[in-house]
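Practice problem 4.
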């Protein structure tokens, strides 16, 4: 069953994300939280039930988080990493028992070591990779690959328009260089805009 948030809470999260988009359009990169359908499919795209350590990148208002948490083993380590302190504070209020690091994927190695989390099994990314400058795409992906265990996986989603941009194509070229295997999973139509999921295995 796919979780549905109460309408009032969902409305509040839409407004918060929209406000942050107006303030920081490139890093927020969306005016609406991901749908519960995308959250569900992202959670099913990696083996969360077997994972001992999971990192969520760019959780924003937590659109994917509940779906991830409800599949996690009770003894698994979970760390969320969010650049925007306003969104991070909102996330922490919603998930007070879970760890949040305010910071960038560019510092993921250091963040993971500060939180004593290593050899990560799964990284679930909602980062707007195509909006990143090429240096951040490159350094962020290096950090991701470095903290993953061999065989570990990153799942991320993209929108058609983003992947058509030169920076989107650069991102795909980089993941194909840095990961042993890249799989393009099915489209999720029930999301605004429709999204597809990429699963990258180290
Ligand atoms: C497209 S939104 C996704 C929000 C939410 N996970 C969802 O699916 O609705 C991208 C999120 O990534 C965060 N972000 C952007 N750049 C980042 C970076 N360099 N490191 C960590 N988080 C970042 C943004 O602040 C924002 O919360």
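Answer key:
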């Amino acid at each position: 069953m796919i979780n549905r948030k109460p309408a009032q809470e969902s409305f509040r999260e839409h407004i918060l994300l929209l406000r942050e988009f107006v303030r920081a359009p490139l890093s927020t990169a969306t005016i609406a939280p991901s749908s519960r359908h995308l959250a569900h499919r992202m959670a099913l795209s990696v083996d969360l039930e077997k994972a001992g350590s999971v990192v969520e990148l760019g959780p924003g208002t937590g659109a994917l988080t509940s779906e991830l948490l409800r599949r996690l083993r009770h003894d698994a380590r979970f760390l969320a990493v969010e650049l925007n302190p306003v969104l991070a504070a909102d996330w922490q209020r919603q998930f007070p028992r879970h760890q949040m690091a305010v910071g960038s994927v560019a510092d993921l190695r250091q963040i993971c070591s500060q939180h004593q989390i290593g050899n990560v099994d799964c990284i679930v990314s909602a980062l707007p990779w195509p909006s990143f400058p090429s240096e951040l795409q490159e350094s962020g992906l290096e950090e991701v690959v470095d903290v993953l265990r061999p065989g570990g996986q990153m799942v991320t989603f993209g929108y058609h328009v983003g992947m058509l941009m030169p920076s989107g194509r650069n991102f795909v070229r980089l993941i194909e260089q840095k990961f042993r295997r890249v799989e393009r999973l099915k489209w999720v139509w029930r999301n605004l805009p429709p999204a597809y999921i990429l699963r990258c295995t180290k």
